[in-house]
# Entry
Amino acid sequence: MLSEQSAATVRATLPVVGGAIGEITERFYARLFAARPELLRDLFNRGNQAAGTQRQALAGSIAAFATYLVDHPDQRPDAMLGRIAHKHASLGVTAEQYELVHEHLFAAIVEVLGEAVTPEVAAAWDEVYWLMANALVAIEKRLDEERGGRRWREWEVVGRVEETAEVATFRLRPADGRPAPGFRAGQYVSVQVELPDGARQIRQYSLSAAPGSPVRQISVKRVPGGGTAPEGEVSNHLHARVRVGDRLSLSAPSGDLVLGDTAADTPLLLASAGIGVTPIVAMLGHLVDTGHEGPVLVVHGDRSPAGHALRADHEAYAEKLADASVHFFYEADADAAEASHRSGLVDLADVAVAEGTRAYLCGPLPFMRAVRAQLIGKGVAPADIRYEVFGPDLWLAQAG
# Structure
C-alpha cells in the first residue's frame, strides 16, 4: 500500500504533522469555504463547523490513517474507511470533491509548516492522501451501485409522535407512491431541509423501525444549544415546522452498524444511551421478526424513564424475544418496583455476558468507551464490539 520510501518519511514527520493537524484542518476549512461557500451552506453541518467538532474528526481520521499505514504498510484500515464512506455516500459527496479537498488541504499544510514541507515530505503525504481518498471513492462508488445510484427522494410525513419532551418520531412514506428501498436494521438516512435563510442543510438520522415495518420512521432529538454548543438548526426546524402532510427529502439508507449474518443462537448485546436508542430499537424489532433464539442483553442508559425515547418499543420487543435480559439505568427516578430498572450510570459489573457475544453500541462517546472497556474486561473480543457515532466521529480524535 504505502511505498517504503514514503513510509519512512511519514514516520519521521508524523509527530510534526500530527502536532499541527488541528491548525492545518482549521485553515483548510477556512480556505475551502472561502472558495466554495455553497459547501458550507448546503453540504457541511454548520453546527459542527461552529463547534469545531468536524475539524477534530478530520484531524483524527488523517492522523489515524497515516499512523496505520506506517505501522501496517501493506494494509489499510477498512473499518474506519467504511464508516467514513457510508457517511459520504449518504451526504452525496462526489469523487471530484476529493480533488478540491486535496488542493486546499495541502495549501493549508504548506501555510502551517512552511519550509518543513520539502518536496520529499510533500510527495509522501500526497501518497497518504490519495491512498485514503481513492479507497473512499471506490467504496462510495460500490455503495452507490448497491443503492441504484444517489438520488434524493421526497417522502410524505404520515404520522408524528411526541416520544418525550425532546424527541419526536416522524413516520414516512414515499411521496411518489413507489416502493420504499430496503434497508438493514441499524442504518440511517440523510434528511435535507431548506432553512429560512435558504440554506439546504443535511442531517443524518437512524431509521428507528425494523425493516419489516410498513412505514419508515426517524426519531429526532431536538438540540437546544447552550454554552459553546450551537442550537441544532435541522432538529429544531423539524420539531417546530414539520407536521403530517409535509414532505421531507431523504437519501437512500446508509451505515455499517448492522447486525449482519448472525446465527439464530448467537449471543448479542445491544447497548445504547440517550438518543442512541434509535438504531438499537430497529435491531430489536428485526430480531423479533426473524425469530432470534440466542440470548440478547438489552442495556440502556438515560437521565430518567420520562426521557427514555421509544421506551415502550424497547420493552415490548425485548419481551417478545425468546431469551432477553433487560437492564435500564437511570440517573434519576428509577422505579425500584421495576426489575429492569437500575439507578445511576450504566455499569455491567454484575451483568453476566455470554461467551461469544457480539456487541453493538450507540450513544455518547464516554458511554461507549466505558461499555467497551467493561466488555473487553469480561472477555468479549474487541473485533466483536461495533459502534455508531452520531455526528462527527471523534473516537479517534479523542483517543488517549
